[in-house]
Amino acid sequence: MKKKALLCVGVAALFLLLASVYLWGPGAAPAGQAPVVTLSETNFAEFAEAFDTQVDAPRVVFLLSPT
Q: What does pTM read for this prediction?
């Protein structure tokens, strides 16, 4: 019984480790699309320029706030 419980804990820990690497790892964009970037104070001008380049395309900003 102890071996089975230890195996379950090990599998759960491995699953959590793999899930965290997947979720917090760097993002990827499809081929032909600009790379994924994280918005910060240092690259905000770059974001504004990229946002305004294509006037005829729909633009969406998705903002998440921890509050």
A: 0.45
